[in-house]
């Protein structure tokens, strides 16, 4: 480690944000000119907001890059050298849960669900369900690295489980669940939890970081789908229970 | 706007403090990283908090209305082909520009020693996402259940996992996360909600969500198929 370096990788991050925001802005402007024809105030508001979001994202990504990314690796390496391997399950759960708790897109999704369902599906319920799903799978992912379980042994049953339980779920929760899987693999999980897995795999003998470290993200993508469908099933039984009384 | 930012500030604190505190506890109990690194982590956390306040404020006043207006306008322009084409372009353009996709493309270029070039991977993934977004959009308009599409897609993923060369499989599953960047996600969610709000046919929830997540199955299938073609 060579001291404090808060500008590390800033250029790449900035380039990434610009590349992501430009197509959206151009697309909106084309739409505005050809079809939308919104009043000028709206357009300035939207562009101002988009600019603000891009600046915020840049600062956020840079912050993650210099804080959570290196710390994920260091914590992972410390985990790899820990004596009691069973501890990694609960540790993984806590880190997975709180990382997702701070994932920006997960919050946007939960808020939009509450709004679209006019409050009948609460934001906190969706948020907690997604975090529980990720926490559980990160704990399992830790054991996967320790005991060298092949990725597909977890992924295939997980996808098969989704295919089965979705037929018992109602439409609303199924739609939310699919999106939950998409937003859970955001910038926080992709850096911190991935670095955690890679750090752990690299500090344990005989583990290939590529084979054992990667795959954490794949697990995080499928877990919330299951937990949100499960939330829906709990909701449904409660409603039916209430109706029978 | 300042009021909005103040509200967002408390929300952001509530959202990131648990992780920061957990990291601090781990640091002082048994990780014990060098002090400089810990200071760097503290500075980074301030960046994260300020950045997220700006980001969430910008989403509320910029990206969500943008998505809603476009989504609400789409069905008025009539034809299904027009809507499918626009959806395809949104999926394609935002994915091709996503930094994560570039990283993944270089990794695959690497493991195949250049047989599958970066450009091939990049454009295949972008086309995959574009097609899946278009399919998901048509589902909302035609009003059939997401369960059928999802079952078909997931069964395909499972079957292809056994047929594709094993070295491709981990990359393929990781590819599922690349189509959902932090900026794209709010726009796509809002777009689908805007679309479903003018259809007013079924529940806003079952029509309005699922688009984003379904789009992320696209890259998994595309990369597995690429592996089968080139190996």
The shape of chain A is flat
Largest sheet of chain A: none
* CA-based shape of chain B: globular
Strand segment tally of chain B: 0
What is the radius of gyration of chain A?
A: 21 Å
Radius of gyration of chain B: 21 Å
* Alpha-beta classification of chain A: mainly alpha
Verbal overview:
The complex is a heterodimer of chains A (245) and B (231). Chain A is built from eleven helices and no strands. Chain A has helices at residues 10-36, 40-66, 68-80, 88-101, 104-116, 123-147, 151-165, 171-184, 187-203, 209-213, 216-244. The model of chain A has no long low-confidence stretch (mean pLDDT 89). Chain B has 231 residues and is mainly α. Chain B has two domains: 1-63, no CATH class; 78-230, no CATH class. In chain B, 82% of the residues lie in helices and 0% in strands. Chain B has helices at residues 2-31, 35-73, 80-96, 99-111, 118-142, 146-163, 169-175, 184-199, 204-208, 211-215, 217-230. The model of chain B has no long low-confidence stretch (mean pLDDT 86). Classes of the chains: A mainly alpha (245), B mainly alpha (231). Chains A and B meet through helix 1, helix 2, helix 3, helix 4 and helix 5 of A and helix 1, helix 2, helix 3, helix 6 and helix 7 of B.
């Amino acid at each position: 480690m060579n001291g404090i370096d808060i500008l590390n990788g800033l250029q790449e991050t900035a380039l990434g944000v610009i590349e992501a925001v430009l197509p959206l802005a151009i697309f909106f402007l084309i739409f505005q000119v050809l079809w939308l024809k919104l009043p000028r105030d709206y357009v300035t508001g939207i562009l101002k907001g988009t600019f603000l979001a891009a600046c915020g994202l840049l600062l956020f990504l840079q912050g993650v890059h210099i804080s959570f990314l290196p710390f994920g690796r260091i914590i992972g390496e410390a985990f790899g050298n820990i004596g009691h391997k069973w501890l990694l399950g609960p540790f993984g759960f806590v880190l997975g849960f709180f990382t997702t708790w701070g994932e920006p897109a997960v919050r946007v999704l939960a808020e939009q669900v509450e709004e679209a369902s006019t409050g009948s599906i609460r934001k906190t319920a969706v948020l907690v369900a997604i975090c529980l799903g990720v926490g559980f799978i990160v704990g399992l992912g830790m054991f996967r690295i320790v005991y060298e379980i092949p990725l597909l042994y977890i992924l295939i049953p997980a996808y098969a489980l989704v295919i089965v339980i979705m037929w018992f779920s109602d439409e609303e929760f199924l739609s939310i669940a699919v999106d939950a899987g998409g937003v859970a693999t955001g910038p926080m999980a992709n850096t911190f939890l991935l670095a955690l897995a890679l750090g752990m795999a690299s500090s344990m003998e005989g583990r290939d970081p590529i084979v054992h470290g990667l795959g954490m993200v794949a697990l995080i993508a499928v877990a919330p789908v299951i937990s949100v469908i499960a939330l829906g099933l709990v909701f449904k039984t409660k409603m039916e229970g209430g109706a029978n009384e | 706007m300042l009021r909005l930012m103040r509200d967002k500030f408390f929300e952001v604190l509530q959202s990131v403090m648990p992780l920061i505190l957990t990291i601090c506890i781990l640091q002082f109990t048994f990780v014990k990283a060098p002090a400089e690194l810990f200071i760097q982590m503290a500075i980074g956390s301030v960046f994260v908090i300020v950045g997220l306040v700006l980001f969430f404020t910008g989403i509320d006043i910029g990206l969500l209305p943008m998505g809603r207006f476009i989504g609400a306008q789409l069905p008025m322009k009539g034809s299904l082909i027009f809507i499918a084409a626009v959806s395809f372009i949104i999926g394609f353009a935002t994915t091709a520009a996503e930094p994560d996709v570039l990283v993944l493309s270089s990794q695959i270029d690497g493991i195949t020693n250049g047989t599958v070039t970066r450009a091939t991977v990049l454009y295949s993934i972008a086309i995959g996402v574009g097609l899946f977004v278009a399919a998901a959009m048509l589902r909302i308009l035609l009003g059939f259940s997401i369960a059928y599409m999802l079952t078909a897609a997931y069964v395909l993923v499972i079957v292809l996992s056994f047929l594709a060369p094993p070295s491709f499989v981990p990359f393929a599953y990781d590819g599922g996360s690349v189509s959902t960047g932090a900026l794209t996600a709010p726009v796509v969610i809002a777009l689908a909600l805007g679309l479903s709000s003018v259809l007013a046919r079924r529940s806003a929830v079952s029509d309005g969500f699922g688009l984003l997540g379904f789009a992320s199955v696209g890259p998994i299938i595309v990369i597995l198929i690429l592996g089968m073609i080139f190996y």
